[in-house]
Design goal:
The chain is of the alpha/beta class and 258 residues long. The protein has nine helices and ten strands. The strands form two sheets. The chain has a five-stranded parallel β-sheet with strand order 3-2-4-1-5, sandwiched between helices. A five-stranded mixed β-sheet has the order 6-7-10-8-9, with helices on both faces. Helix 2 packs across helix 3 and helix 5 packs across helix 6. It binds S-adenosyl-L-homocysteine. S-adenosyl-L-homocysteine (SAH) binds next to helix 4, strand 8 and strand 10. Its EC number is 2.1.1.107. This is uroporphyrinogen-III C-methyltransferase.
Length: 258
């Protein structure tokens, strides 16, 4: 019975560079009869699809939702009930700001088999590939991940007063348009305006752009460079170490944008 209903693999496709994906994820793509993929998934990964595989783009770009989440949930259920092997490809890791859990709940309601294939999340990989370690001995022993966007009906909030001084490295996903608010809240809660920060756009990819400054300067720098999403915003002393640790390619990307 279960098998007739097909199976959904909720697959983390990694941060961008098509080589930064797991073997297990590739196997799921190769075996899939249907692939549903998001905006941030590298399209080169679709080359692993077998012949005849149905490939469906369900991505959203910023706030222009190409597909409402409910419709994606429904599609997964429909394909699952039709007995298909489905790979649901998501950028980074499916459970880090990826709504993977919501999709699974829908599948469970219909007794559709699923598996979770974790991926390399952008919040660690994007700074890392640019030479910024999210933790560093004697410099940063804690790191936390935040979403810069909160939906209108959100039931959680960011405790700015606690995080501003209580955590060493702060990593914001979806933080470009909200950067002024993030910076304002952190400084209002006691974060030093001199704290080193970086905005990294399209990290791990050839088109990567890196902006480095301080909490106090980054918003103006972003305006000057007309800096656009998608980017990871990283706040903390670790950013200062990137000069020593970043590979040459990233230094070139930086000078390009200046
Ligand atoms: N599940 C994903 C995150 C989805 S939220 C993960 O685990 O990585 C989408 C946000 O991730 C983007 O707005 C951006 O902040 C970040 N992001 C994803 N890929 C990125 C990349 N290559 N470079 C910079 N930021 C990226």
């Amino acid at each position: 019975m279960m098998r007739e209903r097909g199976k959904v693999s909720i697959v983390g496709a990694g941060p961008g560079d098509p080589e930064l994906i797991t073997l297990k994820a590739i196997r799921a793509i190769e075996n899939a009869e249907v692939v549903l993929y998001d905006y941030l998934v590298n399209k080169q990964l679709l080359d692993y699809c077998k012949e005849g595989c149905e490939i469906v783009y369900v991505g959203k770009k910023n706030r222009q939702h190409t597909y409402p989440q409910e419709d994606i949930n429904k599609m997964l259920i429909e394909y699952g009930l039709a007995g298909k092997k489905i790979a649901r490809l998501k950028g980074g890791d499916p459970f880090v700001f990826g709504r993977g859990a919501e999709e699974i709940l829908g599948l469970k309601e219909h007794d559709i088999e699923f598996e979770v294939i974790p991926g390399i999340t952008a919040g660690v990989a994007v700074p890392g590939a640019a030479g910024i370690p999210v933790t560093l001995r004697n410099v940063a022993s804690s790191v936390a991940f935040f979403t810069g966007h909160q939906c209108a009906n959100h039931k959680t909030e960011i405790y700015w007063d606690k995080i501003a001084t209580g955590i060493d490295t702060l990593v914001f996903y979806m933080g470009v348009t909200q950067a002024p608010r993030i910076v304002r809240n952190l400084m209002a809660c006691g974060k030093n305006p001199e704290t080193p920060v970086a905005m990294i756009r399209w990290g791990t990819l050839p088109e990567q752009e890196v902006l480095k400054g301080t909490l106090g300067t980054i918003v103006q720098m972003m305006e000057e460079h007309n800096f656009k999403p998608p980017a990871i915003f990283i706040v903390g002393e670790v950013v200062a170490y990137s000069e020593q640790l970043s590979p040459l390619i990233n230094q070139m990307a930086e000078s390009e944008i200046e």
